[in-house]
């Protein structure tokens, strides 16, 4: 049996090597190569923590499994002069208990922490500071800013799909629809589709959700860092899916109010509601007939 002293001399260099490797990691590597940076919304850090912790645990499991495979292949290899099969064992209860209990603990642990974080992310915000209705359409976005403007009837912006140009980048970013959000204010996004299934995705926010015709889904979060972030549709929705792009611009509260006022000045008052949906046979609507 290997003595504890020898195991200690093996463990110390391994631990020092691991610490040195982690110390030399970049910020992106420490975040598991996820997009964005820390603290963009009130949810991104918890998502990053779950992701990185999961990979560390799974890497540890992988090292143990790989080590056991290599150890078995070396220790129990056929020696020179040996013939026939090695001694066969029908059962080994300690090993069977190990490979039953440990995976069960891992699965339950992953489930518990994932369910906890998802429940926190999906928890509705009571009386959000900002409520915005987002319509996905082939192949752009309409944004309705609710409860603002004259008589609190809302204001809107109507987007067009990304315009391709013959240079790098291949699109004219100045013509992309922009979703404005005030920093450090609670936000509720009511996301819907005008035609087919889309998916609202801002990679730096580390969260996305499908937009299903005839159904309203909700996203709750608080943007905590001023900046501009790219968004896109994450569900294949047709020929120009790759051009269904938009931007999210997180600004100060004063700049957000100024933007809302600029939409009022342009005459973009009211909202672009479901009457602009291209599907005529959604729940609550009558499907056209051949006599019409």
Tally of DSSP β-strands: 10
User: Helical region count?
Assistant: 5
The CATH topology of the largest domain turns out to be Immunoglobulin-like
The profile of the biggest β sheet is: 5 strands, mixed
CATH architecture of the largest domain: Sandwich
Oligomerization category of the chains in this entry: single chain
Compute the CA-based radius of gyration: 27 Å
- CATH class of the largest domain, please? Mainly Beta
How much β-strand is present in the residues? 15-25%
Order of helices and strands: HHHHEEEEEEEEEEH
- Helix/strand class: alpha+beta
The low-pLDDT segments are none
Counting structural domains, the number is 2
State the helical fraction.
25-40%
Trace the largest sheet across and list its strands.
3-2-1-5-8
Write the CATH homologous superfamily of the largest domain.
Cupredoxins -  blue copper proteins
Distance between the termini: 88 Å
Shape: elongated
């Amino acid at each position: 049996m290997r003595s504890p002293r020898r195991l200690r001399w093996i463990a110390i260099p391994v631990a020092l090597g691991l610490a040195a490797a982690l110390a030399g990691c970049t910020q992106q590597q420490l975040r598991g190569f996820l997009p964005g940076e820390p603290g963009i919304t009130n949810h991104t850090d918890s998502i990053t923590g779950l992701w990185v912790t999961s990979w560390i645990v799974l890497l540890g499991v992988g090292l143990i499994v790989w080590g056991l495979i290599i150890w078995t292949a070396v220790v129990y290899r056929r020696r020179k002069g040996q013939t026939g099969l090695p001694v066969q064992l029908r059962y080994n209860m300690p090993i069977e208990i190990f490979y039953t209990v440990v995976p069960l603990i891992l699965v339950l642990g992953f489930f518990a922490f994932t369910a906890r974080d998802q429940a926190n992310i999906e928890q509705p915000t009571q009386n959000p500071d900002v409520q915005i209705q987002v319509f996905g359409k082939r192949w752009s976005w309409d944004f309705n800013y609710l409860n603002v403007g004259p008589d609190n009837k809302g204001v809107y912006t109507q987007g067009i799909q990304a315009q391709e140009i013959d240079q790098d980048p291949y699109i004219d970013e100045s013509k992309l629809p922009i979703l404005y959000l005030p920093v450090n204010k609670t936000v509720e996004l009511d996301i819907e589709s005008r035609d087919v299934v889309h998916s609202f995705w801002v990679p730096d926010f580390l969260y996305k959700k499908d937009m299903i015709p005839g159904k309203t889904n909700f996203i709750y979060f608080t943007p905590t860092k001023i900046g501009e972030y790219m968004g896109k549709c994450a569900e294949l929705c047709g020929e120009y899916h790759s051009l269904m792009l938009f931007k999210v611009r997180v600004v100060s509260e004063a700049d957000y109010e100024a933007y809302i006022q600029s939409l009022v000045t342009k005459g973009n008052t009211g909202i672009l509601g479901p009457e602009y949906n291209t599907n005529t046979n959604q729940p609550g609507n009558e499907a056209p007939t051949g006599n019409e």
